[in-house]
Amino acid sequence: MEKLEKLLNGYQIYQDTERFQFGIDAVLLADFASGGRAGDGGKSSIKAGEKVIDLGTGTGIIPLLMAGRLSSKTSGLCEPAFTGLEVQKDSADMAARSVALNSLEGQIKIINGDLKDAEKLFARHSFNAVTCNPPYMIDAHGAGNELDALTIARHEVLCTLEDVVAAADFLLATHGRFFMIHRPFRLPEIFSALEKHKMEMKRMRLVMPFADKEPNLVLIEARKNAKRRLTVEPPLIVRNDDGEYSVEVQNIYNR
Description:
Helix 3 links the parallel strand 4 and strand 5 (108-112). The chain has 255 residues and is of the alpha/beta class. The protein contains 8 helices and 11 strands.
């Protein structure tokens, strides 16, 4: 069932309750890529004139959030600063309608396509930054037999971690930035894939559901053809002991 949800930045987004809906991971990634708590003093935020592509954009939540955070830097450009690439036609359609509803056609462009076809869809080195909230699970074990929208969003059935990093490698200009959120248990594979494609992990932040719990998410920033130097930022605690969002998470939602 389709519904219209209002975001705290004032924009609205179409979602389908029977398909994958965005969660806190998308919100955290959009903030991280927009310069939230950048270890280099905010230099990771998108600058005026830069182009950003979100791989597997779903219903367009990450471009919508980033446009809200960076509208003063991206409005009035000759072409959209943000591109959302989505393989599922229904999701891409909802994303495009959300962009139009918020009158953001000048800032965001939605394309229905497969990230594995990046070389056919875009020119090499044509983006300054790539964001991605990819499927976390290695296969579809336990996901049922049907290749439905939820399975595609959560499991590596249509694309793998290697596919995502390879696409980012092709799309990024030299020293371009790749922002991704993933599961900490996949970090060895992430490091390996980045090294293969000549991208260096520059910034990492673990996300913990509670202060006394094991991290269940990791935010990363990698840069293409960069020197080796990794900044590990203090962990982000999502909830207080009483189950309420921490002050930092509340601030992220309200940015």
